[in-house]
Amino acid sequence: MLAISLGTAWLLLGPLSLWALLQGRTAARAGAVVTLLLLEAATFAMDRARPAPASAPVAASAAPAAAPPSCQAVRTPVPLSAKVGKALVLTWTAVPDECGTAKVVVRPEGRRLLIWVHEGPLTGEHEGMHTVPVRVERGAAALTVPLTGPLPGKAPYIPVDGRSGRRIPRA
Predict the structure, then answer these.
(1) Which whole number is the average pLDDT over 75-83?
(2) Origin, by domain of life (predicted)?
(3) Is residue 65 situated within a structural domain?
C-alpha cells in the first residue's frame, strides 16, 4: 500500500513541482526542490526496506534423494510460481533435505485462490487439505494439487500465498 501511495505522490507532486520550478516565485521554487528531494528520499528508503531477492539456487553435483514421507522437519515453503488449470502446480526452491510430501490447503476467495503449503508434521485437520508428493528436479521442488469440483465463477484465478497475501507469479 505504501508503494501505491508513493507512486501516486510522484504522479501528482512531480509535475506540480516541475511547474513551480519553471513558473513559480522563489519560495515556490524552494518548496518544489524540497518536495522533489523528499519524494526521492522516500523512494530510496522504500527500496532499502524491500526484502532482498533470494539468491539463485546452486546446482548440486548430485540430485538430492527424496526424503521419506515421514519427514520430521517442519517447513513452510514459499511458492515461486503457480500454474492454475485442471490442477494447481506450485514450484519453489528446493532444500537438500526436502520432504517427500507436503500438505496443501487451497481456498477460493473472490478471484483469488489462497494457497497454504506446509511440509512436515501438522497438528489438527484443516478443511480442504491435500497431502501430495513433492518432486525435486534441478534444485526446484514442485507439487501438483488436483482442483476438485468446479471453482465458482468463470474468471481466471489469481494464485495468492495465504500466509503473506502476496500474489504468486504464474509459471
Answers:
(1) 88
(2) Bacteria
(3) no
Asked whether residue 74 is domain-assigned, the answer is no
Q: Which pLDDT band holds residue 86 (cuts at 50, 70, 90)?
A: confident
The DSSP annotation for 42-111 comes to HHHHHHHHSPPPPPPPPPPSSPPPPPPSS----B----SEEEESSEEEEEEE--TT--SEEEEEEEEETT
**Cα(26)–Cα(48) distance, integer angstroms:** 33
Say whether pLDDT at 153 is over 80.
Answer: no
Which residues, in sequence order, are bridge partners of residue 158?
A: 112
Same domain, 40 and 93: no
For residue 167, tell me if it sits in a domain. no
C-alpha dihedral (6, 7, 12, 13), degrees to nearest 10: 50
3-state secondary structure of 113: strand
Looking at the 3D structure of the chain, how many domains does it have? 2
Q: How many CB atoms neighbour CB 9 within 10 A?
A: 15
- Cell, residue 80: 515461486
